[in-house]
Amino acid sequence: MIRARHEGVRVSTKPQAEVADVAELIAEYDEERPSRSLSGRWELGIWVAGLLVALLVLKQVFWPFAKGGQYYLVMFLAVTLPLVFLCYRPRKGGSDDPGPLDWTLAVLAFAVGAYPLFGGFDAFLDRQGQLTDLDVVAGTILLLLVLEACRRTTGWVLPIVCVGFIAFAYYGGYLPPSWAISHAGVDFAQIINGFYNGPTGFYGTPLDVAATYIVLFTIYGAVLNASGAGTFFVDISFSAFRKSRTAPGRTAATAGFLLGTVSGSGTATTVSLGAVTWPMLKKAGYPKESAGGLLAASGIGAILSPPTLGAAAFIIAEYLETSYLQVLIWAILPTLLYYLGIALAVEIDARRFGAQPVDIDAPSPWVLLKRGGYHFLSLGVIVVFLALDIPVYSAVVYASGVAALFALIAHKGDVRTWGRTILDSLSTGVRGALPVVAVCAAAGVITSTITKTGLGQELASALVDVAGLISSNPSVVLFVTVVLAAVAVSVLGLAVPVTASFIISWVVIGPALVELGVAREETAMFIFYYAVLSEVTPPTALAAVAAAAITGGDVMKTMWRTWKYTLPAFLVPLAFVLTEDGAALLLRSSFVDVLWVFAASALGVAALAVVTGGWLVHRAQWPERLLCVPAAISLLYLQPVTIAVGIGFLVAAVAVHLLLPKMRKEHHA
Questions:
Q1: Considering Cα of 122, then 449, then 209, then 107, what sign does the dihedral take?
Q2: Distance in angstroms (rounded) separating the CA atoms of residues 24 and 11
Q3: What is the pLDDT of residue 106?
Q4: Which of 21, 223, 467, 564 could anchor a disulfide with 480, C-beta 3.0 to 4.6 Å?
């Protein structure tokens, strides 16, 4: 691991005594609750079970079951749901080893999960809409177990939301007939039928994505980490910027982007990044809160960015029936704008805080690239194979194979140790996907209920109607609806994981934007960004809270510093849904349109940096910062007239900034 030095003092980039254990911090602040630390024989048993599930997943990639995808999903849920009860405690502070209750629930989960396979899968499907009493009992038990698994892995909120949707489906007939959301009510057996034997229930698109894509990417991340990629990504980030006062901030942002490829979690990336880079930021003179804000913004940026993105990106591809590569392409320009905002904030902060250079005691980047540049190859394999129209699940398996071969280099040719490490990665990858499996199965409760009751369309219409009360102008209605939608997705994301937040928002809020003429592609990406950004949205902002735990800074101040760094990511999604030209930000327009739209958006992000950072050529005062507010808003409303207005405000801000000090000097003279 690279070490840094400042004023003759060598500063280790490893966690210091003042930095809490990384695993403990991730466990405390990540949106997904920590799994048990099992003792010897239990750990071995779960290890074997996870390995067998990984082999099942790989088997489905190359030799799919003849009875179809739903048959595989039934089997997948039947073997993964029991692992949740064995790997996750029923309550915080409980025993690390599974108890009698855990084993009972695990056996029951396998029994009711595999129940559709016992009496003949085709016969079970033929009973759709006319389930037997035993079918209903098995489906009800599976429902309760899915909700309990979700509670263990993510907390109470999502299960409570699911129960609310079930109650709405059953008691809808008791609502006043004048209410738009009232309906005749759904019989309980039909509710269970929708969950257990319908296309939108437990075995719908969310679980399909978890079983087909997400589990493979968690395995890939585990294999990549086993190859030493995580250490290499941090080292190359430290080495790249060397000695300058902005190097510490640039290093944190770059390392966060690269580490996110391995972890796939914004909060986990923040904690891992902070443990390594906080000592350097501290020596450079960063205040605790500003350092925490930079760490949280860098960590969350990793799952907003290609080539991996977050789990919800796979669901976008499925819902829109497009390729995962296409989703990656849509994310390119928003990612550039996000990191442009962070880069400008880093440059400004280094000047405002008077940051000091920190020498990096490390080989040159070229030496490191010669030693470990192969770690980038597996990422390239994914992109190249996707470009060749190879399915994403096959591409990620091949990339995992490439990373596994390179792991042999990290183990210096020790085949036995290497083999055990790869098997560990397969099992670890499956265990890492368990919370997502529970969430995706629970999401089927919501999507099925909305489909049966038509609730999504009614809520979407209500959202548009609320906007219509303010104005009848279509542009104003769209603007108000988009703002309300952004707030709704952000608030929902405070309570439930990103994947669930996206799914719920897509079926409830998505139709409102589509009804107003926003393309489904822009709508999906808009919801995706706000679902992810909920991790840095006050008043919870888990990534920021975790960063504050590392730096020792004030939690609320750290949240607001994080918001400053991530502000472009909050406003750019508005830009690509408010006007037709915004499609260019997703590379869905001509090359010329993409150029001028990106240039205008970049100027808007720069204006935002002046507003939040208070710096242009030198420290900016309130007149120029005030002028930059309408400049940023106008530039991000992607119409030629508003862009011209925004440029005018920005020019005025620069002129005031340059002339005001001279006028003051002349006045005093």
A1: negative
A2: 23
A3: 96
A4: 467
Q: Running DSSP on this structure, what letter comes out for residue 615? A: B
pLDDT > 90: what percent of the chain? 33
Of 422, 395, 393, the closest CA to residue 60 belongs to 393
Q: What is the pLDDT of residues 2-39, one digit of tens each?
A: 444 333 333 344 443 344 465 555 555 555 556 777 77
The residue assigned the tokens 């542009």 is 475
Do residues 621 and 658 touch, judged by C-beta distance below 8 A?
no
The percentage of the chain sitting over the pLDDT mark of 70, rounded to a whole number, equals 90
Write down the mean pLDDT value for the chain: 84
Q: 68 phi and psi, to 5 degrees? A: 105, 175
| Other Cβ atoms closer than 10 A to 546 | 28
Q: Is 68 left (phi over 0), alpha (psi -120 to 50) or beta?
A: left
**How does pLDDT run across 49-65, given as a tens digit for each residue?**
999 999 999 999 999 99
pTM for the model stands at 0.83
3-class SS of residue 337: helix
- CA pair distance 608, 630, nearest whole angstrom: 10
Whole-angstrom CA distances from 282 to 350, 358, 444, 501 are 12, 10, 46, 35
Query: Would you place residue 566 in the very low, low, confident or very high pLDDT band (cuts 50, 70, 90)?
Result: confident
* Cα–Cα distance measured from residue 502 to residue 354, given in angstroms and rounded to the nearest whole number: 41
Nearest to 610 by CA among 660, 552, 647, 653: 653
Please tell me the predicted confidence (pLDDT) of residue 416.
87
Distances (CA, A) of 278 to 8, 10, 253, 266, 271: 18, 14, 12, 17, 10
473 pLDDT more than 80: yes
CA 147/CA 628 separation, integer angstroms: 48
Three-state helix/strand/coil letters over 377-388: HHHHHHHHHHHC
